[in-house]
From TrEMBL:
Function, as annotated: Binds heme and transports it to the liver for breakdown and iron recovery, after which the free hemopexin returns to the circulation.
Annotated signal sequence range: 1-19
Record-linked SUPFAM superfamilies: Hemopexin-like domain
Family annotation (PANTHER family): HEMOPEXIN, HEMOPEXIN DOMAIN-CONTAINING PROTEIN
GO cellular component: extracellular space
Name of the protein this chain belongs to: Hemopexin
Record keywords: Glycoprotein, Heme, Iron, Metal-binding, Repeat, Secreted, Signal, Transport
């Protein structure tokens, strides 16, 4: 199953609560500014070092997925008429963790020149001729996009010109040219949440960064339904900058691959991809059978366990979250317990799940068959929403407050609650 056989629902909502929708981009009063909901599309799209995505057209840009246009030189000073630049041809953010001096820097391409920025400031020595930094890459590009190792063979940049794609290996500084005639000519390209998109006019097409093949749905799709909010387009989902104090999560877990998820209502959000921003999607996008939210989630040995009411769903995380045959099963059958589960967690490289139901916490050995409760304690509080165990210890969430414990045993046995802490921007991307 490909991720986007279900739609790439770019909700742009931090749907950790049901906040009211806010007006779309059409609410732009200034008619002198370009409107991203027209059919023209973009010259370049790239994230900056903080994960804010910039959409460029002519001398203007849009900062992020919402909001009106502004002059590009307000954000990137030298992108202006003085330097004879009315537009950028292509842009990308460098992925090069081996060279910190290059990593996360932004590159803009204009005719035969490259401009390099960090912290939105033009760097010394720039602009340069493109070939000084990227030997073998042609001038007058159409689009560019980063492609880290793992997604491409090596840390690379894909440069598009017509139907040719020049794959630039940043370590060896060598170029391999391919021709992908089946793809539209991309006016801009974007890597977003580990997928690759070629933008052309108001449309976009998802492609495989190595093979070029178009997969995971019917393309082209209209960018106005996904990458921005336009009148009469998209699902009309609300966008919120949710206040941190309004956060209420149902479950939180980190799997063996380091993917970190929070669940709230019928949505989930990945926390480890914050370089692309934080985005909420329906839980059923990945976990198809779970359409009505979750009570608790934990990860163990390549599997993700989702608990809702008295049902346990086990998904194989290594196989794109396919439901394991025979599931869901009842809590009683699977874990030997009953009652409403509030929270569950497994600590890294442990085989014990701790399940919190009301004021009780139970330890269950996951390596034993059948599973049995090995220990049980009474907690000093009830009404826990979610809990996460990491190498640093355990965080127990109650609304927008969380409590930190060193270990399951301190959580189970301490009679004094630790200092309450508050969910913050760094943790959940909410507004403080
Ligand atoms: C920004 O660009 C606009 C239009 O290209 C130009 O009129 C203006 O002078 C520029 N502003 C600065 C501060 O360079
Ligand atoms: C990126 O985020 C850091 C930390 O919040 C901030 O100090 C910096 O100004 C941001 N950079 C840009 C270009 O917005
Ligand atoms: C966008 O896609 C629609 C539907 O496939 C098509 O009719 C239209 O010509 C496309 N426009 C561009 C600029 O690719
Ligand atoms: C967040 O808090 C501010 C100030 O307390 C308030 O004005 C605003 O409406 C709140 N936003 C939401 C989405 O609740």
């Amino acid at each position: 199953m490909e991720l986007s056989t279900t739609t790439l629902l770019l909700c742009l909502a931090l749907a950790l609560s049901n906040a009211a929708p806010v007006p779309g981009d059409a609410a732009v009063d200034d008619a002198s500014l370009p409107d991203r909901c027209d059919e023209i599309g973009f010259d370049a799209i790239t994230p900056d070092e903080n994960g804010t995505t910039f959409f460029f057209r002519g001398s203007h840009l849009w900062k992020g997925f919402r909001g009106p246009a502004q002059l590009s030189n307000e954000s990137f000073q030298q992108l202006d008429d003085i330097h004879n630049i009315g537009h950028v041809d292509a842009a990308f953010r460098m992925h090069n963790i081996k060279h910190e001096g290059d990593h996360d820097h932004m590159y803009f391409f204009v005719d035969d020149k490259v401009f390099r920025y960090y912290g939105h400031a033009l760097e010394n020595g720039y602009p340069k001729d493109i070939q000084q930094d990227f030997p073998g890459v042609p001038s007058h590009l159409d689009a560019a996009v980063e492609c880290p190792k793992g997604e491409c063979m090596a840390d690379s940049v894909l440069f598009f010109k017509g139907h040719d794609v020049h794959v630039y290996d940043i370590a060896t500084k060598t170029v391999k040219t391919k021709t992908w005639s089946h793809l539209p000519v991309c006016t801009s390209a974007l890597r977003w949440l580990e997928h690759y998109y070629c933008f052309h006019g108001n449309n976009f097409t998802r492609f495989h960064p190595v093979l070029g093949q178009v997969s995971g749905g019917v393309y082209p799709k209209d960018a106005r339904d996904y990458f921005m909010k336009c009148p009469n387009h998209g699902h009309g989902g609300g966008h919120t900058s949710l206040n941190c104090s309004d956060i209420k999560i149902d479950a939180i877990t980190t799997d063996d691959a380091g993917k970190s998820y929070v669940f709230a209502g019928t949505n989930y959000m990945r926390l480890d991809t914050r370089r692309e921003g934080l985005h909420a999607f329906p839980i059923a996008r990945w976990w198809k059978e779970v359409t009505n939210g979750v009570d608790a989630v934990f990860s163990y040995s390549d599997n993700m366990y989702l608990i809702k009411d008295d049902q346990v769903y086990i998904y194989n995380a290594a196989a794109q979250y396919t439901l394991i045959e025979g599931y869901p099963k009842t809590l009683k059958e699977e874990l030997g317990i009953e009652g409403h589960v509030d929270a569950a967690f497994v600590c890294p490289s442990h085989a014990t799940v701790h399940i919190i139901t009301g004021g009780t916490i139970r330890a269950i050995d996951l390596s034993a068959t059948p599973r049995v409760v090995t220990q049980e304690w009474t907690l000093p509080f009830s009404h826990i929403d979610a809990a996460l165990c990491s190498a640093e210890g355990i965080n127990v969430f109650i609304g927008a407050t969380y409590y930190h414990y060193e270990s399951p045993i301190t959580l189970a046995t301490s009679r004094i609650a630790p200092e309450p802490q508050h969910v913050n921007t760094a943790m959940m991307g909410c507004k403080e």
